Amino acid sequence: MPGFDDVLAAAARIAPHAHATPVLRSRTLDALAGCELHFKAEHLQRSGAFKFRGACNAVWSLGDAGAARGVVTHSSGNHGAALALAARTRRIPCHVVVPEGAVAAKLAAIAAYGATLHRCAPTIADREAACEQLRRATGAELVHPYTDPRVIAGQGTATLELLCTAGPLDALVVPVGGGGLAGGAALALAARAPGTALWLAEPTGAAETAESLRRGERVTGFLPDTVCDGLRGTLGAPNFGMLSRHGAQALVVDDADTVRAMRLVWRHCKQLVEPSSAVALAAVLANPERFAGQRVGIVLSGGNVDLDALPGLFALGR
Amino acid sequence: MPGFDDVLAAAARIAPHAHATPVLRSRTLDALAGCELHFKAEHLQRSGAFKFRGACNAVWSLGDAGAARGVVTHSSGNHGAALALAARTRRIPCHVVVPEGAVAAKLAAIAAYGATLHRCAPTIADREAACEQLRRATGAELVHPYTDPRVIAGQGTATLELLCTAGPLDALVVPVGGGGLAGGAALALAARAPGTALWLAEPTGAAETAESLRRGERVTGFLPDTVCDGLRGTLGAPNFGMLSRHGAQALVVDDADTVRAMRLVWRHCKQLVEPSSAVALAAVLANPERFAGQRVGIVLSGGNVDLDALPGLFALGR
């Protein structure tokens, strides 16, 4: 389990490579939400998502001999691209196992950062087996998208920066999928802003975090059904433990509300964020009584939108 | 005719109201273009376009008595919204004449800033007559979208700020429609960066600036046919004079290239810019030999995209 010291160490480790992203404001969205919104713009992070922080911390945590053997992961999304770019910053090999049927544009992005793609059948068992095989064959280090402690500590740096820039917050709202970003946020808040409530925004079609927190035990086996492609992963075991002990609370949001919130950010902030980012703003807008008059931090987690899929996405948010 | 002193005065006058927008960079776009691109992010200006600078300068140039009678203009686009917001910053009335058939979302934006809308038939003669009638009836001051010297001086502040932030530039590329932004750029460059070449990016379907500069006299009567809705205006007479004397050169760009450039900015910068903005990047990408290795400034002029019209727009850029 990572601790706050690991977040501080990650901040120093990734500083030469990652962007210190800005915190954005919008008078119009503040008026709509009835509170003061401070958006941490991680869609402007390198590789277009906060994922670069954790990947970069993992890559630069390796000893020289281990690093030379490279890194491996399975992800057809932002973590794959982030690890590929992080590996490039250290000039080491990166292997990414991607399932058949993944979006071609996303695979092209991972390949463009110099990673080697390995295709496999689209089940989680196949993906993990392919990873394990590659790890044994190459000696590459496995970097899990959200349970790896180096990844969680790296993601915590986003909240650390947000607190530095925005000042005291009554609440922080982050999207939750596997729980890497949220776990890192819990570490940073516990140490630096224990009075700030941590809210986890989750799509209705992948709401196992809400269910897990309600039951007090980690629920698995959900079949995700949501446009938030970054939030389809199952909440990790260490992540559940961290969030549960921290007292984080979940807010569940319909995809239609998420797409409407995404369009609001596009229209009023002129920032291209992906649905998995907008779920946090949607959670605030759907629960005005919980945030009225508060200073609220929101992590805009990524901006890797498939532009060719927009018509279908917009149809959902009418 | 405005001079550089008017640009400096405008900068001081609008400073309490307008944003000093950032200058954005992208490694990926630099690599694609083969030069160093410095994007002045005027889509992040208030009202979502550089137009707020000129409108704000005009509104705050008025004496108290004149200001109390309000301002009037005809525009269904960014100038109308910008003047409405500028008038609101001074709490004075604003009348905007809009043609029948204008995009409902744009009219809603103008109304949301508190302006009174007046509908008229969609010819330029009808729009000017309606403006004149309102001016006589209310005593409101006419603020023309691009020939008004206060507007041109205000737009010059965008280039002034870009030069301050980005440092010396070999070239500056701005979109040209009526010539307000370009005229202001000429003033700023002549005084502060006489060695910087001024390029005017213009859609093929509204290329009367290129034709006017070629002939050495202002050509009018074009029927614009372009997706760049901000660039359909006819080059103004004072604007032509300023650009022609300055030695500005035009680059004509197909709409398909403009839409592709827009998508590149969306994808790699995560910034929602409108087609009228992207024409400048498209001009650089289509003319690599002219800009190779240079430090190039580009004004991203606005971000007011009609999201409901995206499918048609994207079809064009395939």
From TrEMBL, chains A, B:
Record protein name field: Serine dehydratase
**Highest taxon of the lineage:** Bacteria
**Magnesium among the record's keywords?**
yes
Q: Which InterPro entries match?
A: Ser/Thr_deHydtase_PyrdxlP-BS, TrpB-like_PALP, TrpB-like_PALP_sf
Please give the PROSITE patterns that the UniProt record associates with this protein: DEHYDRATASE_SER_THR
Family per UniProt? Belongs to the serine/threonine dehydratase family.
| Organism in which the protein naturally occurs | Lysobacter arseniciresistens ZS79
Name the UniProt key words of this record, in alphabetical order.
Answer: Lyase, Magnesium, Pyridoxal phosphate
What's a BP term from Gene Ontology annotated to this protein?
A: D-serine biosynthetic process
Q: Does the keyword Magnesium apply?
A: yes
Give the GO molecular function terms: ATP binding; L-serine ammonia-lyase activity; magnesium ion binding; pyridoxal phosphate binding; serine racemase activity; threonine racemase activity
Q: Which cofactor does it need?
A: pyridoxal 5'-phosphate; Mg(2+); Ca(2+); Mn(2+)
Where does the record place the Tryptophan synthase beta chain-like PALP domain?
15-302
User: One Pfam family, short name please?
Assistant: PALP
